[in-house]
Specification:
Quinone Oxidoreductase, Chain A, domain 1, six-stranded parallel sheet, 2-haloacrylate reductase, 2-chloroacrylate reductase activity, seven-stranded mixed sheet, alpha/beta, Rossmann fold, NAD(P)-bd_dom_sf
Amino acid sequence: MKAFMVEKYGDQAGMRAAEAPDPQVGADDVLVKIHAAGVNPLDLRIRNGDFKTFLPYRLPLILGNDLAGTVVRVGPSVTRFAVGDEVYARPDKDRIGTFAELIAVHQEDLAPIPATLTMTEAASLPLVALTAWQALVERARVQPGQKVLVHAGAGGLGSIAVQLAKALGAHVATTVSTAKVDLARDLGADVVIDYRTQDFEEVLNGYDVVLDSLGGENLAQSLRVLKPGGTAISVAGPPDPAFARELGANPVLRLAMTALSSKTRRQAKRLGVTYSFLFMKASGDQLRELTPLIDTGKVRPVVDRAFPFDETLQAMEYVEKGRAKAGKVVVSMT
């Protein structure tokens, strides 16, 4: 099969199109013919080697973390799917590889594509939708009437998180650039901060939850807009001890992660709030829970552009250089 592979960590020069063996299909696996695959900042960070200390992939590695496609074979223990089913998924972190014609995915990580979505739309959703769900529902347990700040509300993650927070009954604020203010309002944000002209810390206060995808000073400011007892969840901030335990990291790596997040955790403690790092997990069941929200239009995909599969490297460059106007970039096989 044709695939796009990372041969050495670093920039785009370390990736190329290549022929790869068809995936092996285990007893609980579903072989999927991929029709479309989402492009995520995570792909760039994996390609660059940012996570190699705790995600020790063996190179060469087929990249890609989102897929939509059709089942072409099932393992002998598979009970949830049959040949011909249309499915989507974020594969487990140890089994990525959606920039390819085929992939074998554990049946528990797959879900049927919602009836209202095209393949391209479906491929844009799994990673960001699961991240939003795990942050807002699983970890923060957002309740109606709570105040939620979602940073970068027109981006891939932010556009879904804004809609999910609204569907949960929250009062939602978000930060966007000037050109994306109208889109953020259209997605349901109650308060839209134009970060080019406004400082969100001067406008917002008393928030219950912040979802941060930027890290750095943005995360430090986010802690200060929370009310006492509030929670900041970051997908870009420093990994914390809880993540190290979840990962089963060795003592040296656990110590390193503790040190990396110590400043942020100390700041949070002084303010009477909590900080946690989130690295999302694959879950077909959670994708199924999102289906009613998608089919009723409460959560809708935002696709910036679809590239042909042969232009996967150009699609990654497009994301890397920040050219996407809003939402996700997808590569399409058809």
